[in-house]
Hints:
By secondary structure, the chain is of the alpha/beta class. It has helices at residues 19-32, 67-77, 106-109, 120-129, 134-142, 151-159, 200-206, 223-226; strands at residues 5-8, 38-41, 56-58, 81-84, 97-101, 145-148, 167-169, 186-191, 213-218. The strands form two sheets. Strands 3-2-1-4-5-6-7 form a seven-stranded parallel beta sheet. Strands 8-9 form a two-stranded parallel ribbon. Helix 1 links the parallel strand 1 (5-8) and strand 2.
Amino acid sequence: ISMKLVVDCRILSVNHHYGLSRYGASITSAPAALTPLTVVINDKRQLKHLPVDIPYLMAPAPGFHTQRKVIRMLNDFGADIVYSPTPFFTVGRANFRIITSLHDTNGFDTHRPFSADVPRHQRFLWDAFHATKRPQRAILNGADHVITVSEQAKQSILAHKLNTKPITVIYNAPFTAKSISYHGGNTLVYIGSFFAYKQVELLVSAFPLLPDYRLVCVSKAAPAIQQ
């Protein structure tokens, strides 16, 4: 019996391939090498991060107001299992099994974990969503299974009592990338975003304590952060 497996890849960036986008591409490409699957995208430029000639469906960009339309589309497609690397908004009647991911509980653990270039409306939406745990619980409990990226994240989800469904840990995997060499002394490399909770500014301010080392930050940063 043929099973229709679908992965929601609308989180993939069309420009800079940031962490969550890379995770979505990696967790899609790995099973695609083993079994047929279809991806959901909202921009054909997202295909550059995915296996060549992978079947795809076009859908609206992610958003609460578009999810009913997306679910109806997947029902019509005859999907059996749908996986979303980010919490899938489980609104509408789905005729398929839903697997979703929650990567961390920073929204409940850290106040405003933003970088300086995050627009004000996105900050407002973040605060509104995390003002109570009910929306997150509704989303996760609307899924059939939850994937997270570490045992620590799993224990945090359980501690916050965010869901009652099974949780499986699938760790981040290494990816193939061009090597970059730095010469002329000891070098420490930071790879990650500049969200406030990661305290990159503290790392930079403390670096004079290591005069024999050089710090290289490998991440996209707004001009305000670079200064």
